[in-house]
């Protein structure tokens, strides 16, 4: 399971139709709410599905790979 926080910016493997790959995390839980930084679209996506699509996580000015954010449950 990945450790994600509100206001993290995640880069996904596949681009949104608007062309942006960067999303801001705005809601956490079993489903995660993300907002596209290109067009502002809000999407709720299941945590497991999102975790498989993340390429990079930007947190407090640092760029992290998903492997660096794994926590044991």
Q: Could you tell me how far the N terminus lies from the C terminus, measured between alpha carbons in angstroms?
A: 7 Å
Helix count? Answer: 1
The number of E-state strands comes to 6
Low-confidence stretches: none
Helical/strand content category: mainly beta
Q: Judging from the principal axes of the Cα atoms, what is the shape?
A: globular
Strand content: 35-45%
- What proportion of the residues is helical, as a percent range? under 10%
Topology order in helix (H) and strand (E) letters: EEEEHEE
Average per-residue pLDDT, rounded, comes to 92
Q: Numbering strands along the chain, what is their spatial order in the largest sheet?
A: 4-3-2-1-5-6
Major sheet: 6 strands, antiparallel
The value of Rg in angstroms is 11 Å
SSE arrangement:
Elements: E1 9-12, E2 22-27, E3 31-36, E4 42-46, H1 47-53, E5 54-59, E6 62-64
Antiparallel strand pairs: 1-2, 1-5, 2-3, 3-4, 5-6
At a glance:
Helices cover 10% and strands 41% of the residues. It has one helix spanning 47-53, and strands at 9-12, 22-27, 31-36, 42-46, 54-59, 62-64.
Tell me what you see in this structure.
- With 73 residues, this protein is mainly β.
- It has one helix and six strands.
- It has a six-stranded antiparallel beta sheet with strand order 4-3-2-1-5-6, with helices on one face.
- The radius of gyration is 11 Å and the shape is globular.
- The relative contact order is 0.27.
- The mean pLDDT is 92.
């Amino acid at each position: 399971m990945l450790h994600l926080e509100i206001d993290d910016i995640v880069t996904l493997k596949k681009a949104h139709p608007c062309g942006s790959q960067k999303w801001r995390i705005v809601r956490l839980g079993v489903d995660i709410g993300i907002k596209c930084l290109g067009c502002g679209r809000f999407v709720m996506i299941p945590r497991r599905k999102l975790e498989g699509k993340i390429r990079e996580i930007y947190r407090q000015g640092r760029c992290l790979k998903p492997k660096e954010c794994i926590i044991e449950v």
